[in-house]
Amino acid sequence: MNQRVVITGMGVMTSLGQDLDTFWGNLMEAKSGVGPIELFDVTEYPTQIAAEIKNFNFEPFFDKKEARRMDRFVQFAVVASLLALKDASLDIKVDTDPERVGVYVGSGIGGLSTWEEQFKILLEKGPRRVSPFFIPMMIANMASGQISIMTGAKGPNSTAVTACATGTHSIGDSYKMIQRGDADVMICGGAEATITPTGVAGFCALRAMSTRNDDPTKASRPFDTGRDGFVMGEGSGVLILESLEHATKRGARIYAEVIGYGMSGDAHHMTDPDPDGAARCMLKAIKDAGITPEQIDYINAHGTSTPVGDRSETTAVKKAFGDHAYKVAISSTKSMTGHLLGAAGGVEALICGLALKNGIIPPTANLDNQDPLCDLDYVPNVPRKADLQIVMSNSFGFGGHNATIILKKFAESV
């Protein structure tokens, strides 16, 4: 018999907040975390805005010596994981068997700032001056590695690198590990820190990002006729997943239950999404959950605010849901957080869990003039109270990687 899997802890690190209460409060007020880039000089860049994390303080969690050996994305991941464990009231070494606790925190790009710094040293000072910590700081799996080291989790340890689908793949794969009995607890989600000179330059070259530099808080506007590209964000979203049996034994507080996971590949194009692939992904998750499309109350859309992407996702929802597409509530919280790339799925799964717990759908901010080709219910600008029972979160990445998870309001009996 498959184990039931529940969410017992959450940790968030974004421009909208570095704790759950602040983060959720800002979402409910439809605030934007976007502003001018301050991490480096953007004078020559077409895009000069992003959702940066301000006043990030790692010192309550680890010292400066340890921080110098972690890329910024790893620092975000470790802090979010420690916050999630605290939220779950779980001490791995005391409350459970460390060999039954796994870590699966992915990153779409990894340690880009470390790569840039060390390449500059290579060019200016030569190979002998490159840091011995360059490789272990830069590689994408080091978020999971450092979390394991700092928490004592000795169970399954892995990393997804599937662009913007990374966080959702990490959570979905973790769900399956617990479901089949490979672990009792998984620390899972995503982390990203690519607001760097090459990161921003690369996405600018793709012409994928908004250039609404004069009005940063209005720049991310999914499904709106005025959208002109996504806004880059940074941070981490981490969930603590547990088997229901394990959570019940220790009297854990439960946010929601994970009931479905789907994944698919477009086999189509590097950057141009195929609605058929996204639709198949959603239907796979629905089938895995043992429900019908009509039972989904809310979808946290991938909704990046790109002209092509938002229309493609709208088409995909119609393909997957039929007539119910016009009845299900949909919103894109990237309108407030920006697009956290590999961390997006972790943050948005967390949002879905909070939406179920609080009975409130977060809005799509800046949706003032809805695109006629995006004609579904996108919950514009203000949150909506709702009796949510089952919700879905979508993540679609470059390369045609698609991931969907489904969460359900927790009930003791199935």
From TrEMBL:
Pathway: Lipid metabolism; fatty acid biosynthesis. InterPro entries: 3-oxoacyl-ACP_synth-2 (IPR017568), Beta-ketoacyl_synthase (IPR000794), Ketoacyl_synth_AS (IPR018201), Ketoacyl_synth_C (IPR014031), Ketoacyl_synth_N (IPR014030), PKS_Beta-ketoAc_synthase_dom (IPR020841), Thiolase-like (IPR016039). It catalyses: (9Z)-hexadecenoyl-[ACP] + malonyl-[ACP] + H(+) = 3-oxo-(11Z)-octadecenoyl-[ACP] + holo-[ACP] + CO2; a fatty acyl-[ACP] + malonyl-[ACP] + H(+) = a 3-oxoacyl-[ACP] + holo-[ACP] + CO2. It is an enzyme of class 2 (transferase). Keywords: Acyltransferase, Fatty acid biosynthesis, Fatty acid metabolism, Lipid biosynthesis, Lipid metabolism, Transferase. PROSITE patterns: KS3_1, KS3_2. Residues 2-409 form the Ketosynthase family 3 (KS3) domain. It comes from the Bacteria. Its EC number is 2.3.1.179. SMART domains: PKS_KS. One of its GO terms (molecular function) is 3-oxoacyl-[acyl-carrier-protein] synthase activity. Involved in the type II fatty acid elongation cycle. Catalyzes the elongation of a wide range of acyl-ACP by the addition of two carbons from malonyl-ACP to an acyl acceptor. Can efficiently catalyze the conversion of palmitoleoyl-ACP (cis-hexadec-9-enoyl-ACP) to cis-vaccenoyl-ACP (cis-octadec-11-enoyl-ACP), an essential step in the thermal regulation of fatty acid composition. Belongs to the thiolase-like superfamily. Beta-ketoacyl-ACP synthases family. This is 3-oxoacyl-[acyl-carrier-protein] synthase 2. It comes from Paenibacillus agricola.
